[in-house]
Design a protein that fits this description.
This protein is of the alpha/beta class. It contains 12 helices and 26 strands. The chain folds into 3 domains: 357 residues, Alkaline Phosphatase, subunit A (3-Layer(aba) Sandwich); 70 residues, 2-Layer Sandwich (Arylsulfatase, C-terminal domain); 131 residues, Jelly Rolls (Sandwich), CATH 2.60.120.260. A hairpin with a 4-residue loop joins strand 24 and strand 25. Helix 5 runs parallel beside helix 7 and helix 6 crosses helix 7.
Length: 580
């Protein structure tokens, strides 16, 4: 019998080796938690297509990401802890991935794959941080971290919006999810005869919670409170659209040789009733699969998420749970091995290939210690909103200890009973933190004066500031005209004459400046000018030397003695020059 099984495994391995290289589709939704699909026990939400994928896949049931979106995406892209890649926040210039990181898209592109990024990027809106700068041949994305955020097209609201298609804003008809799924299907159809890598990252169900009305109403009528009714409606609508994508893969004969991965980027944002809100008329308060915490939390509810891997052509036993501790940065090395890619990582990876686990080879798999933290500061403070994870233990905030083998809801702190475990996990965290400290002094620079992006337009979402409350990261906040300011870290690629334009809102909005004087400062260059009444912008033509510098703006209201920064800035290189 053993010989027969060995022969069968050898035949399957040979068949896999002889098959064309597999396509890869990674689908990552935004703010959908582990409990926000019916296959995990949610009795209210309807997700039949995700449930079907769940039934057919290898399911990682102890899979972890960062508790917020940009960090998760950076780790997935690089196979490394997000902080190493320069990403530990979602704003404040700390969501921009360092240019010297290698992305999963670059790896696949170098191996002959056609690559596409569709939906949410949130790792930098300017060169050299955009997806087209990081290995993606085709892109269709919104700006910033969500539709309607400050870098997005002004006035986008999920319906009939403008999106960046290969770097240019274009109008699209329909609800955002339908646009992104339609573009994904189009990409697959055009590249059916060659291997492709598709990173499909719909913006749903991120706030603002706007679903097609029929989907929202269905849950409201079942007694689901707002905004959870729209949140669920967004997920169900996505599930329908995802079903169309899977059907098209089958129709094209691509399903068997396409590695399809579904995961989410952090814990639920609106899938449980928040403090201060009551249940709906039907008494429904949401479902979090028995976990503590949600998006932004160091408890498991903030970072334990679904991860399903489906690949019939890989010969994996489907429909099985894998409880091994795993994480987002494991996907890159796993896919490199599954697809047989030629790549030597230029920097050490934190992830490890899960292929042995996928093949059922759990013997000899080492126990791992992983780290999670939620950072909302310019420079990350140690131990804040942190978790140290092993298969059995969770050390939260450096002091609370939970035994996950007996207490998956993290209800009982057992640190006093296991001081040796606490000391060991603290020591591991301290060692890990030491490896991060050199990163904190680095910046993800916006680069101006290049052919790739001239003029370069950027926004206050990427201000560096002492306090995140200073950052108007959403268009609704910009419209409130806060008295706020911050600075950007900018690199001038070539010395020359540059035109700097300051605005409250994008040029198309034609909003008059509420200022009498405008000012810019680049290093030792400090210039100001009067603002004529009714002007919609203030412009400076200056000579800028090549190099990196802190750049700040002021729009001053001299009668009140107050000033705010320019929420929107454009820098255009006009001509060669040699300094000041």
């Amino acid at each position: 019998m053993r010989a027969a099984v060995g022969l069968l495994m050898a035949v399957m391995a040979a068949a896999v080796a002889a098959a064309p290289r597999p396509n890869v589709v990674i689908v990552i939704t935004d703010d959908q938690g582990y409990g926000d699909l019916s296959a995990h026990g949610n009795t209210m939400i309807r997700t039949p297509n995700l449930d079907r994928l769940h039934a057919e896949s290898v399911r990682f049931t102890n899979f972890h990401v960062d508790p917020t979106c940009s960090p998760t995406r950076a780790a997935l892209m690089t196979g490394r802890y997000s902080t190493r890649a320069g990403v530990w926040h979602t704003v404040m210039g700390r969501s921009m991935m360092f240019r010297d990181e290698t992305t999963i898209a670059q790896v696949f592109a170098a191996n002959g794959y056609r690559t596409a990024c569709i939906g949410k990027w949130h790792l930098g809106d300017n060169y050299p941080k955009r997806p087209q700068d990081r290995g993606f041949h085709e892109t269709l994305i919104h700006g910033g971290g969500g539709i309607g955020q400050t870098p997005d097209f002004w006035g986008n609201d999920y319906f009939d919006d403008h999106y960046l298609h290969n770097g240019e804003w274009r109008p699209f008809q329909g609800y955002c999810t339908d646009v992104f799924i339609g573009a994904a299907i189009d990409f697959i159809e055009r590249h059916r005869d060659r291997p492709f890598f598709l990173y499909l990252a719909p913006n749903i169900p991120h706030s603002p919670y706007r679903a097609p009305e029929a989907y929202r109403r269905r849950y409201a009528e079942c007694g689901v409170p707002a905004p959870m009714d729209a949140f669920y409606g967004m997920i169900e609508h996505f599930d329908d659209a995802f079903g169309r994508l899977r059907a098209r893969l089958r129709e094209l004969g691509l399903a068997d040789n396409t590695i399809l991965i579904f995961l989410t980027d952090n814990g639920t944002s609106a899938g449980v009733v928040s403090r201060g809100r009551g249940a709906g008329s039907g008494g429904w308060t949401g479902f979090n699969a028995g976990m503590r915490g949600q998006k932004g939390s160091a408890y498991d509810g903030g970072h334990r998420v679904p991860c399903f891997l489906y690949w019939p052509g890989g010969g994996f036993a489907a429909g099985r749970d894998v409880p091994v501790l795993a994480a987002h940065f494991d996907l890159l090395p796993t896919l490199v091995e599954l697809c047989g890619l030629d790549w030597t990582p230029p920097k050490p990876l934190d992830g490890r290939s899960l292929v042995p686990i996928l093949r059922g080879e759990t013997a000899g798999w080492p126990e791992r210690t992983l780290f999670v933290h939620v950072q909302r500061e310019e420079i990350p403070p140690k131990w804040v909103a942190s978790a140290v994870l092993t298969d059995r233990w969770r050390l939260v905030n450096g002091s609370e200890l939970y035994d996950m083998s007996a207490d998956t809801g993290q209800t009982r702190d057992v640190s006093a009973e296991h001081p040796t475990v606490v000391a060991r996990l603290r020591e591991q965290y301290e060692a890990w933190w030491t490896t991060l400290e050199s990163v904190f002094a680095r910046y993800g620079y916006i680069v101006v004066g290049t052919e790739a992006e001239n003029p370069c337009r950027f926004t206050c979402m990427d201000w560096h500031a002492p306090d995140v409350a200073q950052i108007p990261w959403d268009q609704s906040l910009v419209q409130k005209m806060p008295w706020a300011n911050g600075w950007w870290m900018v690199e001038v690629a070539r010395p020359g004459r540059y035109r700097i334009t300051l605005r409250h809102q994008p040029a198309a909005a034609a909003v008059s400046l509420q200022a009498t004087r405008a000012r810019v400062r680049w290093g030792t260059i400090d210039a100001s000018r009067e603002v004529p009444r009714g002007a919609t912008s203030a412009t400076f033509d200056v000579n800028l030397p090549a190099g990196r510098e802190r750049f700040q703006t002021w729009l001053e209201d001299e009668p009140s003695g107050r000033a705010r920064g320019a929420f929107y800035v454009e820098i255009e290189r006009l001509a060669e020059g040699g300094g000041l």
